[in-house]
Amino acid sequence: FPLTPAFSFELTFGPIEAKSVFDPMGRAHLCTLNVCSLRAFLRGPFSAPFFRKSFDVLGLSEVQADFDSLCDSSTLCKYLKDYSKCFFNMCHDKPWYSGTAVFTRQAPEKVVFGFDDEICGDSPDVQGRLIRVYFKDASVFMIYAPSKVDENLPFMIKIRDQLQLDRNQGEPPAILMGDVNIPRTSQDISKITPWSTSNWDY
């Protein structure tokens, strides 16, 4: 994970080690969960049955932790024994806020934390809201979009632009997962404070 705020931070493993995210039948088991604090989730009753499941890619949003505290968690280390690679993108400007994590069974070719420089401009991903994992035949975008309306749309536009840039550069097709913080249907919208006019987290 990036130690300091950066426009983009990349880890490269190389094509020799890189594997396919899909099995021989063309299937991949992916899961994403907003944990609302990974440390609290690990102490709760649902963590053991959840981590008993086996996924090719597991993405967590709203991790809300610093890296050292997670490394000290014997519970997390026990749960992650079936994954070969673990990646964390932590929030830099507000400790214990936001953050994403991705755990993979297969080795990717490269992992990028945040957006490419030409996409983020002068607004780097200091809140750890994006991890891009590139396998041999697909990429996985782990997203935790802002819930504030005035921040959500610019973030999702950057996601769109990053996808287009990847396509232009010949990157493999993308799988999007995570928490995009957008109401899916009209029933998901608060009748007290409409999402389109809300200025605060809900």
SSE arrangement:
Layout lengths: L8 E4 L17 E5 L3 H6 L3 H6 L4 E5 L5 H5 L2 H6 L5 E5 L10 E5 L5 E4 L3 H4 L9 E5 L4 E6 L4 H20 L5 E6 L23
Parallel strand pairs: 2-3, 8-9
Antiparallel strand pairs: 1-6, 3-5, 4-5, 6-7, 7-8
Mean pLDDT: 84
Structural class: alpha+beta
Strand content: 15-25%
Helix content: 10-25%
**Biggest beta sheet attributes:** 5 strands, mixed
Q: What is the strand arrangement across the widest sheet?
A: 1-6-7-8-9
Q: What's the helix count?
A: 6
Task: Summarize the structure in words.
With 202 residues, the protein is α+β, with helices and mostly antiparallel strands. Helices cover 23% and strands 22% of the residues. The protein contains six helices and nine strands; from the N terminus they run E-E-H-H-E-H-H-E-E-E-H-E-E-H-E. Strands 1-6-7-8-9 form a five-stranded mixed β-sheet, with no helix packed on it. Strands 2-3-5-4 form a four-stranded mixed β-sheet, with no helix packed on it. The protein is globular and about 50 Å long. The protein starts with 8 loop residues before the first strand and ends in a 23-residue tail after the last strand.
Question: How is this structure best summarized?
Answer:
The protein contains six helices and nine strands.
Q: What are its keywords?
A:
single chain, 202 residues, alpha+beta, five-stranded mixed β-sheet, four-stranded mixed β-sheet, 22% strand, globular
